[in-house]
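2024-03-11 09:14:02 DEBUG pipeline.ingest accepted 1 chain
2024-03-11 09:14:02 DEBUG pipeline.ingest length=352
2024-03-11 09:14:03 DEBUG pipeline.predict start
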Amino acid sequence: MVTILKVAIQKSLQHFKLNTTFEVHAGITGIIGPSGSGKSITLQCIAGLQKPDSGSINLNGVTLFDKNNRIFVKPKDRKIGYVFQNYALFPHLTVEQNIAYGLKSERKNDIKSKVKTMIHTVQLTGYEKYYPHQLSGGQQQRVALARTLITDPEVLLLDEPFSALDHQVKQIMEQEVIRIIKENFQGIVLLVTHNMEEAYRLCDTFMLYHEGTIVQSGHKDHVFKQPRNVIAANIVGCQNILKVDSVNHLQNNVDCTVSGVKIRIAKPKAYNAKYIGIYAEDVLFVNSDDHDDNVFSYQLLETIKGIHHANIIVVVEDSFKIQATIPNEKVAFLNDNNRVKLPSHQLFLLEE
């Protein structure tokens, strides 16, 4: 069966109005945006924990919410699983009791068998009698996931599932959780995060949120490499966004000027473009004999070294600043013979 979730809801919030419309199918979709942009509220409305002011929610042809027709299906009847940011485990229940919580209406022997299987699935065999406070953050997360999956939902909602974990544990748990989901769940997964790196590693498609609306959606590679406007570019983490003075659409390229400097772009045309963008990782330093497009002189302003990479801030042609990211070992090779290169196929046009 093809799983389809259709959402078209509105809800007045403190600083803006949630006004979101989308349709998603099976797979992992990331809802990405800054804190307070309406991501978690969207999940809560889908789950039935919050009621929209207007609109509708439909799952596989079944209406879960419709303001006009006064339809509101209770959360427990929606076939939607929700893993909360803080996991929301019951502190007075053991691991097996927490996992079994959603199966109260089933026969005792069936519950016992399902719980045993699920504990094995999430690799917590031997922890059945442990209480949440006796578990690590990663183990608590697996209990929360098991408690959700055991109810056989059609949609799985993950609200910032890795934000409470230490960096070292987080990397391991990301892959572990996604492995468990992909091996045991065939439906829709909506994953809320404000971490672009995390979203890119885990998700198939993106929805970018800003003040309660979706500013762009699609396959992650397309959204990341071709953000539509300045807001989308900021959400996906583009470090260099430059205002253009003029745009000239040629047959195969687009020529722009930024602070009087001509820059060529080998990307699809955007007739309302007001800016161009390029990721710091795509900015290159080349030898002075490179005569390709967009090779410029520069002045080094600042070098900020991290553990493995350095952020390099330069002024291009005495006109505008650009940030580049290069491996630390290459910093020593920057010299007066270098030029900075903005590869034409890595640049993209942005609407305001």
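2024-03-11 09:14:41 DEBUG pipeline.report The mean pLDDT is 92.
2024-03-11 09:14:41 DEBUG pipeline.predict end
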